Fold Shikimate dehydrogenase (NADP(+)).
Amino acid sequence: TDFYAVIGNPISHTKSPLIHGLFAETTRQTMEYRAIEGSLDGFEADVLRFRQEGGLGMNITAPFKLRAFELSDGRSERARLARAANALKFEEGRIFAENFDGIGLLRDIEENLEEPLRNRRVLVLGAGGAVRGVLLPFLQAAPATLVIANRDITKAQTLLNEVKHPRLHVCSYADLAEQQFDIVVNATSASLTGQLPPIPEKVLQSISLAYELAYGKGLTPFLQLAKEKGVKRLADGVGMLVEQAAEAFAWWRGVRPETRPVIQRLTVALE
Ligand code: ATR
């Protein structure tokens, strides 16, 4: 049997074994996918042990994405920009690193939610690891503008300096009051603690999609506010989770699974 796994800490709430199990079933792949709780001081040894035991690939989740990237010796461009890996492949004695978070989010927004980024004004809240992962795929989708807002503006500035793209801009939350957008993505970790990023309310007034990167949190303060402002489409990160999993699955197995039925199965109504 071909072995795969997701590794993180904590790991008990992971949906990845369910998702990859459904993918394997529908594409008729014989494989086994398990969840591993990585140890905080021995993550690298855990990965190498899994490979030693015959593992072919892993998904990486918090807090190990940076360490997985550092452990790898073959890196895609998007993994390099993110400086983080969310998937590894073990092949020919090497460890290849990929980061499918951005492409997963992009696919969910453009294909599942039917909101193409091309020529749209896109706002991303936050400038942490999650945002690093999505910048490159987002810019490749040719939005009219891509604005990053963050409390700590120097962090956003650093991202801008690394990417240097004519359509990429950064600003403070206060500066947002003067601007209009079509799509707003909350990529801060505020929702994990039930907080709302300090976004001027009117920014949400005329947008067509409010996307919350976190999932399984129901209607977060960000989505709640968007709903109150009459935003038609609200989404959380379940679709992104399934889409990035499909990318990893295709990278490992050479077949692309269907995502819609899996997303439907995992989606909890946002109310
Ligand atoms: P992740 O990997 O989830 O991106 P991270 O790298 O720790 O996590 O980044 C967390 C992001 O959420 C940062 O952009 C942080 O903003 P600051 O850099 O200004 O601290 C943002 N964040 C966390 N809590 C927030 C809150 N209550 N309001 C606004 N932004 C918040």
User: Anything to note?
Assistant: The first helix runs from residue 16 to 27. The pocket of 2'-monophosphoadenosine-5'-diphosphate is lined by residues 126-130, 150-152, 155, 188-190, 195, 197 (CB under 6 Å). The chain has ten helices and twelve strands. The two ends are 42 Å apart (CA to CA).
